[in-house]
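Marked as duplicate of an earlier ticket. Keeping the data here for the record.
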Amino acid sequence: MELEIIKPSYDLPAENDNLSFAGMKQPFLELPNVLNNNLNITSNLNLTSSNQVQNLPTLKNTTPFITANSEDITLSILKEKCVIPVFTKDNEITISHSDFIETSISAIKKMFPNETFDEPEIRVSHQIKGRVPEAIHKNVKDLQENEKTQYFERMGFIVRIPSITEDINGNKLALTIGGVRSYNLENLYNKKTYEKFKFFIGFQNMVCCNLCINTDGFQSEIRAMSFLDLEEKIMQVIQSYQANEHLNSMKNLLEYSLTERDFAQIIGKSRLYNYLPRKEKSLLPELLLNDGHLSTIAKDYYQDESFCRNSDGNINMWEFYNLLTGSNKSSYLDTFLDRGVNAFGFATGVSKALSDSSTSYSWFLS
């Protein structure tokens, strides 16, 4: 399905607490190609691409990429049923969730002109409800649907590229881009300024729908003033991504394994980590997973259908990494991507500690 960058239009302006919203129609915005149109990241990758596979079917996910406190939503609902917050002091419009998604799609189509794309999978949370001015004095039970307004404070999305895949230990990985937008990180009570976005390019494990993200494919804060500015910075992230190095690092996890004792030691030390004195904690690698995540990892060590321990209690580091990313699905949208990157760093760090006790990660095994 071809997606055009078309700004949503709303007939009814609305208010919600101290925030005001845009009700104006926006013209069609065509984003120029600011980077090399012919750049194709697959040219240096040993991956399945659309150049070798014809009529490749869309990869179907069985579970969401994130579950905690979020719900599924379509792009059309975001565009047609959600109002857009503005900066209250100058009434300047924000870049909406749908704008972010469509700008990202525009960027990847320019960076991957010969590939196929799945429709975006979108999750939202923290619904903010409102009503049109004409219904301001009505009781809630008397409100008609056309008198209600809403937007979602937080939104995350992914777009898979099913024509670019790789296999690791029998798990099909599809190249995937995505991002997170959180209005709670913006000062909407002030004048318009740079808006903040998180964006990544990495892989999705289609066995479990876990996202595999590395630091060079992730930008924790893109600051943009316009659609053009946002698209250019997204394309820069894609251009800097070293996909082969990321894949090789994930494949290297297969060379290391944890015994049941090692696994128990890591879980125990990880629980202690969050309660260490600040000085001691500062000397260790950062671990963003909390006790809830660690409980899920411990449970899935025994129960996960794809990545649980084997018959002698051992688990390889690729499986351990997927237990980490699986537990991350219970994170809130605004912390989800940061924890996903941290999970990969933790898994690779522990792998090195298994053969080199001098690394800082060896504390988790000692």
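See parent ticket for discussion. The longest strand covers residues 148-168.
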